[in-house]
Amino acid sequence: MLIESYRNFIVELVTTQCSMKRQNVRTLSLVVCTFTYLLIGAAVFDSLESDFESKRWDFLQAVKNNFMKKYNVTAEDFRMMEIVIIENKPHKAGPQWKFAGAFYFATVVLAMIGYGHSTPVTIGGKAFCMAYAMVGIPLGLVMFQSIGERLNKFASVIIRRAKRYMHCSHTEATEMNLMLATGMLSSIIITTGAAVFSRYEGWSYFDSFYYCFVTLTTIGFGDYVALQNDQALMNKPGYVALSLVFILFGLAVVAASINLLVLRFMTMQAEDAKRDEQDAQNLAAANQPVTFDTEHSYNIHGKLLNSSNYMTEYDETASICSCTCLGGTRCMNHETFADPDFRPTDIIASTISLKRASV
Fold first, then answer.
1. Which parts pass through the membrane (predicted)?
2. What's this model's pTM, rounded to 2 decimal places?
């Protein structure tokens, strides 16, 4: 019983150590790849945007100086004009906190887009925004995830029927099929939305495509925000509804893609766990040694294989069981000592075997 318990413990320990080692390597690899990707991105953005930023800053400073000199405006007055213009910018679309604008803001908060086009100013509004986000964001994540699962289920049904119609040998919808389907649907939504926003907002198609991508990935820089021209929030309810449907449905499709990635990662984890268990079982069947951080090495059944103190030709039959007989080289339970020459003569001079009393 004790040997079997120890064997199960060793198998479990080996499985855990192998699994933790694989997971640690994967985590470290992900961290290194992520930071490398960040460094590459920083270098590319620096080379693409830095020079243009400097030229634009110099141009704006020249315009500012010419304006102040032409109209004899002081630095304080010019600063006040800047504040008035910046604060007035969100109001170009009309009242931001009537019901239509407030609903649009609540949608942006729940979807974690965060354009920054309008923000609460009062203490009560800021406090409610934090409490609202704490409840709304998890609710939105669960909702989008659930819709994504339903979309994946619907896509799998369509794919199976399409494969049956084409008389394919394998009619099951694979993960690759679902990823391809959600990717195509995401592309259709972004390209269609870009055409719509390009028409209503007056942006170029590329800028509209950029806005759609930034919105559906919840990056939300705020450099392009829909419904901010021509009192759109008050005068174009159909366009407001279309924008909200685009955000919610688009995020649901993105959630479907994320759901597939999460399922794929969980599958990889399950496969690793199964592989580790199989490796441990193979190790037990082969009776291979298991080495710990100490100087001793044991096989899977708990037998001592090597030690600095007990290296003899009997090492393969030496046992680390709980038998503590003190007589001769073999006990009554026919278990050998690790060292056959070991005889505690200072304790017992007789060769009679003494068995430990049973408890």
1. 27-45, 97-115, 127-147, 178-197, 209-227, 239-265
2. 0.69
Q: Does position 256 have pLDDT exceeding 50, yes or no? A: yes
pLDDT confidence bin for 17, thresholds 50/70/90: low
- For 350, the enclosing helix (H) or strand (E) is none
Q: For residue range 81-120, list pLDDT tens digits in order.
A: 999 888 877 676 678 888 988 999 999 999 999 888 888 9
Instruction: Report residue 131 as tokens.
Output: 């409490």
> Buried b / exposed e across 30-40, counting CB within 10 Å, b at 16+?
eeeeeeeeeee
Alpha helices in 118-236 (DSSP H): 123-165, 175-201, 205-216, 232-235
Task: Quote the tokens at residue 74.
Answer: 């002081």
The pair of three-digit structure tokens given for residue 267, joined into one six-digit string: 């599958």
Q: How far is CA 186 from CA 163, 250, 252, in A?
A: 22, 7, 10
Residue 321 phi/psi, 5° resolution? Answer: -75, 180
Nearest by Cα to 233 from 89, 87, 95, 90: 95
The amino acid sitting at 93 is: A
Q: Is the pLDDT of residue 77 over 80?
A: yes
Domains of the chain are 23-92 (no CATH), 94-278 (1.10.287.70)
One-letter amino acid at 115 equals Y
- The rounded Cα 175 to chain-centroid distance in angstroms is 18
Q: Specify the DSSP class assigned to residue 93.
A: G
Percent of the chain whose predicted confidence (pLDDT) is above 70: 70
The whole-angstrom separation of Cα 137 and Cα 29 is 30
| Cβ atoms of residues 203 and 285 within 8 Å | no
The sign of the torsion formed by the CA atoms of 203, 204, 205, 207 equals negative
Report the 10 Å Cβ neighbour count for 198.
18
Q: Answer whether 252's CB lies under 8 Å from 151's CB.
A: yes
**SS3 state of residue 52:** helix
Contact 11, 284 (CB under 8 A): yes
pLDDT single digits (tens) 141-200: 899 888 888 888 899 999 999 999 888 888 888 888 888 898 899 999 999 999 999 999
